[in-house]
Each structure stands twice: as C-alpha cells, then as structure tokens.
From TrEMBL:
The keyword Transmembrane does not apply. One of its GO terms (biological process) is 'de novo' IMP biosynthetic process. Belongs to the PurS family. It comes from Desulforamulus aeronauticus DSM 10349. It catalyses: N(2)-formyl-N(1)-(5-phospho-beta-D-ribosyl)glycinamide + L-glutamine + ATP + H2O = 2-formamido-N(1)-(5-O-phospho-beta-D-ribosyl)acetamidine + L-glutamate + ADP + phosphate + H(+). Part of the phosphoribosylformylglycinamidine synthase complex involved in the purines biosynthetic pathway. Catalyzes the ATP-dependent conversion of formylglycinamide ribonucleotide (FGAR) and glutamine to yield formylglycinamidine ribonucleotide (FGAM) and glutamate. The FGAM synthase complex is composed of three subunits. PurQ produces an ammonia molecule by converting glutamine to glutamate. PurL transfers the ammonia molecule to FGAR to form FGAM in an ATP-dependent manner. This is Phosphoribosylformylglycinamidine synthase subunit PurS.
Length: 82
C-alpha cells in the first residue's frame, strides 16, 4: 500500500489574490522580508497497489483527470510506502 502526498499550486503566470492578501497581512504584522506568498492545496490519497510504478501512474492519472486544473495549476507528489 502506498500513500500519495499531492501538492497543487497555481502556475506562476496566474494571479494569486489570496496569496497577495496573506502577504500584505504578514507585511502589516512586521514580516517585511516576505516578497511573495502562493496559496495551494495539499491532498493525501491512500492507494492499494502492488508497486511504486503503478502507484505513480495512478496518481498522475487522477491529477490529470480530476484533482488538478492543468490550465492554471501545477502539481507535484511524493509516494510513501505504508
């Protein structure tokens, strides 16, 4: 069994208004050394598959078909055997 930890973020070319608000709030709190904040999503998916290659293929498939909007988002993932 494997566990996929999936990180989804907006592409650099896409405006992130929520990240901008957080950055401005951090600045107002005294953290002037934070030039940018990007907000994303984190998902954990458990997979009952035999090997890591099959798990990676399945995670890519899920991300490409449902979990990620490829027009505006990028993703990375890591697999952990559990």
């Amino acid at each position: 069994m494997f566990q996929a930890k999936i990180y989804v973020t907006l592409r650099k070319s896409v405006l992130d208004p929520q990240g901008g608000v957080v950055r401005k709030s951090l600045y107002a709190m005294g953290y002037q050394n934070v030039p940018e904040v990007r907000i994303g999503r984190y998902m954990v998916v458990d997979l009952e598959v035999a090997d890591q290659d099959a798990a990676a293929k399945q995670v890519r498939d899920m991300c490409d078909k449902l979990l990620v909007n490829p027009v505006i988002e990028d993703y990375t993932f890591e697999l952990v055997e559990v």
